[in-house]
Amino acid sequence: MKQKKSSDRYGRFSETLEQLQQQHLHRKLHVEEQKVLFSSNDYLALSKHPKVISAAKQALETWGFGSGSARTFSSHLPFYHTCEELLANTLQTEKSLLFSSGYQLNSTLLKALANENTLFFLDKYCHRSLLEGALNSAGKVFRFKHNDPEHLQDLLKKHRGEGQEAWIVTESLFSMHGTRGAIAELIELKNRYDTFLLVDIAHTLGITTPPSSSIDLLVGGFGKALGGFGGFVAGNSILIDYILNTSPGFLFTTALPPAIVAGLTEGLRILPELDSERAKLFNNASLLREKLSLPPGDYIVPYPVASPEVALSLSQSLRDAGFQVPAVRPPTVPPNGSLLRFSVTSAHTSDQIEAVTKHLLNSR
Prior knowledge:
Layout: H1 6-9, H2 11-22, E1 36-37, H3 50-63, H4 78-91, E2 95-99, H5 102-113, E3 118-123, H6 128-135, E4 140-144, H7 149-159, E5 165-171, H8 183-193, E6 196-200, E7 217-221, E8 231-235, H9 237-246, H10 248-251, H11 258-270, H12 275-291, E9 300-304, H13 308-320, E10 323-324, E11 327-328, E12 339-343, H14 350-363
Parallel strand pairs: 1-10, 3-4, 3-5, 5-6, 6-7
Antiparallel strand pairs: 2-8, 7-8, 9-12, 11-12
Helix pairs in contact: 3-11, 4-11, 5-6, 7-8, 12-14
């Protein structure tokens, strides 16, 4: 067989990249000097907290750089158990389990939970990792309109049958649009139609948490308010033991490094002491929204724009002025849904918020 030329061999991939560029949907990584970040999810600035850093350093010196294997292949070192026990207590659940990343958790967890009689009902705005996990499972997947319990109820009435196991899947705070999940209404539907309920709390862990007693599984990542890395699932002890034994995302990957787990553990310990940081976070969010003439809401602040091209142009203008504000474009958001996504933290100053909003409004 005649070997293709390099240009032909990769032609399909090059064509896709060219199409993405023409549609202003091409992504690239920026390597540049430090900006004022309005793109970080380190909501409580715990990644730089002295106690967290000290705990991570001590674990690094004691246990070394990496964990060396999957947890089922080596000893269950005590610091993993300490972190999981503390997390379960924080969330008021029976048990919890650490994963190596939030995406890995969600994309393998739903697959592990499902069989051919399982139905998944996902909010339309659920994170891609949750959707991927459901689509790759043996179950059937239905998506209800964002935060629309009535549409969900219609789907449950139509598709929920005897002998079937159903999961409602949502988020406590949606990562792109900053809307709160309709948790109370979904709990009511869960009870009415005898389903399980899974809530991704990645963006609210450590800040506000839904009532765990009415939720079967809480999932999320540690890269937000805990300022670290990794994922977790928490809930009923039978479910957690089942996940430990069946989820490939737990069984077939190297465990989190000791320094990460130690930092997360210390972060969980000091969360109750951070009331002033949480208050500052919400105050900063209110100030940013006020400056941009946006309605009241949370610390994820979407600023809608007309097109991907406009989003890229404004993001670049802000970058040139010293601010990092990401342009969010399809497929991360629906078509015609491009936006600038501001993430506010407790570390932002009022002067920084004043400056970034002034530059944005002058650039429109």
